[in-house]
Amino acid sequence: MRAATILRSALLGVACACVVGGCETEEKIVRYRPILAAVPGAQSNTAPVGDPFEGRRVDPSATDAKSLVVELPDGERVLVMKTGRQLMAHIINTIDANERDLFVEQVLSEATKKEFLERAIDPGEAFDLLKKRRMDIMKLFNLMPMGEYTPGVYMKGVGGGVQRLRVVGPSATDLRWNFMDMNYERGGWRLRWFGSDR
Predict the structure, then answer these.
(1) What pLDDT digit, counting tens, does each position of 46-58 carry?
(2) CB under 8 Å to 144, separation ≥6 — which residues?
(3) Using an 8 Å Cβ cutoff, are 153 and 147 in contact?
(4) Cβ neighbours around 154 below 10 Å, total
(5) How many Å apart are CA 49 and CA 33, to the nearest integer?
């Protein structure tokens, strides 16, 4: 009986040794980036591993100028405004190029056009007013260069499908307008208007 127990223990020990010896653990480092890896001349005992750009947030609005405008076969231009930042670019571009009709047709929101018409005012007057206020627009846009992706810029719904991009803090105190309202219409953002909540 005692011999059988010893034999069983010995066999169990051999089996465990075989299992443990047969199991190899492998450790693989997929990505390692020392904290100072991007600093020129910095040295580390362990070299960085993996693509340094892997996993970083990509700005969906970072596009070249050509992709902001789609030209159709008939020559018509369609402005791409998938983000507030792209809308901002088209506001300034149409003002600078004096493209009043394009601004009214594609940049200005339907709700704003409707309000102008209800007051018996040509929606083109919106373009004329904003052209005079270009400096105020640029002061606001300079504080939110990445649109809704700018740190410190808040985007929130204010009713009726309108989203507000608002700048806060000491740098916004001297602005005529500290927010831009926009509606999502026809597959892109359209300008509702500018304002101040101070």
Answers:
(1) 666 655 444 444 4
(2) 88, 150, 153, 165, 167
(3) yes
(4) 13
(5) 7
